[in-house]
Amino acid sequence: MSANLQRGYNALKEVLDAPIASYFSSCVHCGLCAEACMFYTESGNPKYTPIHKLEPLRRVWFQEATLAGKLMRLVGLAKPVTDELLAEWSPLVYDSCSLCGRCSMVCPVGNDIAYMVRKLREGMAASGNAPEGLVGASKRTVAIGSPMGVKWPAVQAQIRHVQKDTGLTVPVDQAGVEYLVLMSSMEIMNYPEYLAALTRIFHKAGASWTLASDAFEATNSGIQIGASDIAREIVMRIVNAAERLQVGTVVSPECGHAFTAIRWEGPNLAGRTFGFKVKHILEVLDELRRSGRLRTKGNKSIPMTYHDPCQIARRGGVVDQPRTLLQMVASDVKEMDEHGAMNWCCGGGGGVSANERAEPLKLKAFARKKAQIEQTGVKTLVTACANCRITLEEGLEHYGMNITVLGLTELIAESLDDETTSADGGAA
Amino acid sequence: MNTVETLGEILRRRGVSRRGFMKYCATTASLMALPPAMAETIAARLEKASRPSVIWLSFQECTGCTESMTRSHTPTLEGLILETVSLDYHHTLQAASGEGAEQAREQAMTANAGKYLLVVDGSIPMGDPGYSTIAGMSNVDMLLDAAKNAAAVIAVGSCAAFGGIPKAAPNPTGAVAVSSLVKDKPVINVPGCPPIPVVITGVLAHFLTFGGLPELDHLGRPRVFYGESIHDRCYRRPFYDRGLFAETFDDEGARKGWCLFKLGCKGPVTYNACATTKWNQGTSFPIQSGHGCIGCSEPDFWDLGGFYQALSMPTQKLGKVAGAAIAGGTIAGIAMAAHNRSMKASAKQSHERVSTDELEKGE
């Protein structure tokens, strides 16, 4: 066994737990998960059946944790886990899975397949079988601070622009505030509107907030590549900053997996509960709306539809908030046939968009989303995840579709009621 | 006996009208799931068929199968069809006895070698030949001797087909089914305790019409009669689907004719034609008269738990066995869990921290 394989095999033994054992024992091989996965439906290739993507993990479970498997391994009948097997499965585990979790929703015996793919990636990453694109992103996040290589000075430059455009102050490293705002590199590089929108919304709401110069990046390549050691290091940057600044709530940006990383995986990686709350920006906006601190005026009459980011809706439970918020500013919202918890993924989540090798497959899988958008007949697509947004834009471009993609937060900011100011007064 | 006269001639001589005959053929065709047009073919073939020789052997049995056929159907066409085969040996029905009876059997076997039908009811004791003998000959010897030159063997009744009640635990005589002894001939199982008469004559009619044997299921039963479960064709099925069950034999549900599943009806696992053809000239069948099916056409029906125990209940008294199984399972489970925990703990112990350097394959 090579050192790489040794490390990967050990990692797979480490991730085996009661859910995985019960999932593999319960699988009835019905194949329903295939129909739930756009990598299968759009390619028609049965190797993209979600449960099949787990074969290496299944083998480790079978021969390490079941009586029959242990006996078969003793007499050499168990199918071995080899370097070749892991290399062969790398495209299945990384390129053809966006961890969207749609397969987990349809499984008749309740197997959380996405959960298992995430666990299998631990072994793939440890054995050096992660795709180059994700390895690069992880290296940049650890060494530089962000997967796209964005450093604090780039954020500072953006802050200066925002301050100039809005005439408002963007607070940095302020202790004791209500919200610590995180961003994704994508928002810093491609969608600067997000920070401007947030600055204006928080100002209107009279909310105190801050950016942290040592923890501005919310994305977590460690989660995507499946290396908990790296994921923990990245999460702890945020945890340490939030606890040092003693903020009440950490606000996850318009990014899907960043929410999963800090909200769901974070405490498990840290091994303790946090001294602060974690909320997605849509949850925060909806709370401000309910308490009357977020008011809008006017109503856009152009038809729109909302794309649910998987990690926010299906895996994160934030389904109603974006709809309530969108109703505030748009009068003609058409839902896609399957939306909310059963929405179809854009195809770029779970590290797929950072993985150049997966590009052709990702565009093929996008045909599913394309059909959904076409069915609504609208020309404006709203979403709440910068990664979904870039994937959608690429897909629409590839298929020559003339459709505008907007972030929900900036759409809200555009319709802020300028006449009334919050009773609490200005920013902190 | 005269074997030249055809079935058609015999039926006419006995005063069976053409209309009555056609009606029988149509019923047989529909019963055997053949297209309606086949009724004419059946009629034409039956008209011309000459009486095949039939040798009927009875071993460990209660004569219920013979009773079922002769008594309840004597005046019907099925009865006539049976009479019109040349029943050359049937030790319950024949007048001859002793040497003469055995001679008739041997004569028929020689004269019709390779062409006669061998019908067997009753199971064969393998424990000691003395448990059942005929004219000093053990059942097994007689069966193998008669089967040697038979065209086909029809095992009538659950005893001949599956061993039946003689084979019920603890099977004191070592009873076995016909099919476990006759291996080189087609054996058609027509199980039931007793089987439905029209099913027996239907198989005979099929043999006369098509000269071959009907399609059989995995238990050697003609699919046409045993293809569907009692449950699937039961008129009480809608109550089952709606979850309406009789809980006792005298409750409101029983009076309203609800499903008898909870009272032990074996309909869901029993394949037979009772619910379609019914008994006593189509009068009724057990479920219609208020009692659950006991599953008599299935192998080992006598040992599959109580007749009044719902199918969802365990078929045996669990008591000690269950206790031991639970204890054993628990111990094995704890041992497995401990072993797996230590496996995981040691995996954690030998965890090598994954830094970004390890993400790329070395070497």
Keywords:
heterodimer, A: mainly alpha, Fumarate Reductase Iron-sulfur Protein, Chain B, domain 2, Rossmann fold, 3 domains, 4-stranded parallel β-sheet, globular, disordered C terminus, B: 363 residues, alpha/beta, Cytochrome-c3 Hydrogenase, Chain A, domain 2, two-stranded antiparallel sheet, 40% helix, elongated
Low-pLDDT ranges of chain A: 422-428
Distance between the termini of chain B: 95 Å
Briefly note the structural class of the backbone of chain A.
mainly alpha
How would you characterize the largest beta sheet of chain A?
4 strands, parallel
Topology:
The complex is a heterodimer of chains A (428) and B (363).
Chain A lengths: L2 H13 L2 H9 L5 H5 L1 H4 L13 H11 L1 H8 L8 H13 L6 H5 L6 H14 L5 H12 L8 H15 L12 E3 L3 H5 L3 H13 L3 E2 L10 H5 L2 H17 L4 E4 L3 H15 L6 E4 H10 L13 E3 L13 H10 L29 H18 L3 E4 L2 H13 L5 E4 H7 L14
Parallel strand pairs in A: 1-2, 1-3, 3-4, 5-6, 6-7
Chain B lengths: L6 H7 L4 H14 L6 H11 L4 E6 L5 H10 L3 H8 L1 E5 L7 H14 L5 E5 L2 E2 L7 E2 L2 E2 H9 L4 E5 H6 L12 E2 L10 E4 L6 H14 L12 H4 L3 H4 L3 H5 L10 H4 L18 H4 L41 H31 L14
Parallel strand pairs in B: 1-2, 1-3, 3-7, 7-9
Antiparallel strand pairs in B: 4-8, 5-6
